Amino acid sequence: MNVLMTGVGGQGIILASDMLSDVMMRAGFDVKKSEIHGMAQRGGSVMSHVRYGRHVSSPLIPLGACDVLLSFEELEAARYVQYLKKGATVIINRYRLAPPSVISGGEPYPDILPVLREKTDTIVMVDGTKIAEDMGNPKGVNTILLGRLSTFLEADESLWIEAMNSMLKEKIRTANIEGFRRGRHA
Amino acid sequence: MKKILSGNEAIARGAYEAGVGFAAAYPGTPSTEVLECIAAGYPGIHAEWTPNEKVALEVAAGASYTGARAMAVMKHVGVNVAADPLMTLPYTLIRGGIVLVSADDPELFSSQNEQDNRHYARFAKIPLLEPTTSQEAKDFTKEAFKISEQFGTPVMLRTTTRISHSMGIVEMGEVAGQPVPSIERHPAEWVMLPANARVRHPLIEKRLLELKEYANSSPLNAVEMGDGKIGIISAGVAYQYAKEAFPGASFLKLGMPYPLPDRLVREFASKVDELWVVEELDPFMEDQIRALGIACRGKDRLPLCGELNPDIIGAAISGAAPEPFRKPALPGRPPSMCPGCPHRSLLWALRRNKAFIAGDIGCYTLGFLPPLSAIDTCLCMGAGINHAHGMATVFGPGKEKIAAVIGDSTFYHSGITGLTNLAYNHGVALVVILDNSTTAMTGAQDHPGTGVTIGGEQTIRLDLEKLVKALGIEWVKTVDPYDVKKTRKTIKAALAHDGPSVIISKAPCVLLRSKKVPGEPLCVDPEKCIGCKVCIGLGCPAIEFRDEKSSINSSCVGCGVCGELCAQGAIGGGK
What we know:
The complex is a heterodimer. Chain A has helices at 13-26, 74-79, 100-103, 113-117, 128-134, 141-150, 157-167, 170-184, and strands at residues 2-8, 30-35, 45-53, 66-71, 84-93, 123-126. Chain A is of the alpha/beta class. In chain A, strands 2-3-1-4-5-6 form a 6-stranded mixed beta sheet. In chain A, strand 4, helix 2 (74-79) and strand 5 (84-93) form a beta-alpha-beta unit. In chain A, helix 1 packs across helix 7 (157-167). Chain B has 4 domains: 2-217, Thiamin diphosphate (ThDP)-binding fold, Pyr/PP domains (Rossmann fold, 3-Layer(aba) Sandwich); 221-318, 3-Layer(aba) Sandwich (Rossmann fold), CATH 3.40.50; 342-513, Thiamin diphosphate (ThDP)-binding fold, Pyr/PP domains (Rossmann fold); 522-573, 2-Layer Sandwich (Alpha-Beta Plaits), CATH 3.30.70.20. Classes of the chains: A alpha/beta, B alpha/beta. The interface between A and B is large, with 50 and 53 residues. Strand 2 (30-35) of chain A pairs antiparallel with strand 8 (166-171) of chain B, so a sheet runs across the interface.
């Protein structure tokens, strides 16, 4: 199983993909994950590959092999479309962060749906950012999105709760578990 | 017990299990987390950030002279800085095991070049280990210390970004005790005068032959026979990619690719119809295999540049054209300096003063991007001051406005010698030290100017102004970069000064203070905004331009620089 997470540096993608990896290890799979740190964290485009199964060799997902894409930002969902398998599931957080060329008025924010539809019709929009703000926990977008993602994956809900209990600081645990549950029905 | 660890976390764990007592590093992507994990997770190991990589390797060598196991960790270009001790250390007698971790960056995710540091192992005549997973990153770290002590040699453990920053499941192992340190004296083996070093060199050559024998029989180098048609010799993460692309092929996985296990390679080659060498960057193994007279394929099809992946390897070996894909035409999203970053206004002011700006390595290098376009050179750590001095000297005083910018951490790393040279040789360039009190680009590590060690203990805090004066620069001013008017005035005075000048631009990294300082986001009064785009010229991600007017989004931290620049007084609010 190949899961790609995309978004913008600073959105909590690394923690989210860490958590997915931890859950799948708990579920008994071999897991590998790869992403880029460093320069990319300064507001750049970020992509994290998570792969799990009986045995995983490459930490990178081959082109056209991604089963599920979870994007924390709308435009970033379309940037790595070449990784998508035909008919893949694409989950997109309803949130737009304008890149520099759009910010400076050079070009409009693009329409990404036609790009994605060349590969798949299974496109799920999630109001993660809005739910997080409504819950008074704007930093909790990632666990809300993980909640939605979890409904497309094999692992049992209890494993996710276990992972959150072990990986999150006590102060933010309850709010994030609540967000995760809201996300499952978002 | 099993855990999911990144390659870097696994190396830290391996160091702990190996009984390492001393670890030193200078931060550099993708190596940084190794020392951070050691400091955070294994308090029994002394960890220290050193000002640069040469210091890291030399203090590790000192620790090893006592019998302690010691490690120095750096990114690939850091090994260039540490190359001086690295070349002679193999001549000396090794007591406690010593391992150099070199984290290379194929594809240049966060580096100025993509040099292949495996050559350093061959250059220094020391064994090279290359893990292909996090599990091996841990196990090979232990193995590296074992080899170091068994053969009396420094060992290089080489990772790449995809090993250091990929995660995988790691089974924890047993923890060895740390050796008890003691004083010994080995002048003939530790004092590398010509007479002594001359005696040591033949020992290195002999040791290399012994290491080659070891490589021929070590389980680090493993044959996995599949079908006999295609045989692949590979190492590092490239092995995993090749395995993904050709799960049925035969493999010779070289966990210890140098010294190359000649017999093993020959034997493997004889069992397969078509021999391929799959490696990232240079034909390091391939050239040596060809030198053995063994026919193989590799870089005739595989790229010399960039990282590999299963798709590239699959297409290269099968000879099929890679499946064409149209990259969608989308607006790019390059990294940029954060909203409220203190570098932005300083760079803007320098550019407005029409200076040529020799840059250096750090977040401020991102000031190269338009619309700021305020970095004119970037070569390596510490080069900017020297570029500026070289250029300014050619023109002579008062002819051209030439400045260098360098961060505080980079200045301590290798800027001090450059500034000393500039003062000594009647330099006239302006040097701006961007003092944000941290090593920002790699994720905010402490350094000799922060007053704190990696362990969180209070320590000396270098006084930059005093230091600069002590190096012989008399014209030194400290500015607050958020006060743009005053900063511009100071820059103007410095550029007009006919001797060397230093401006210290002092304001903490916005990431360090995001909770305390920022006021409310500012806002633009659309009635007053005339769409002149002066604020857009700052390249701040918080300022947007739409329908001929500027507006400010929620990422604004209220630094106030754009408000100060706006001649219409259209930007206000906030604190």
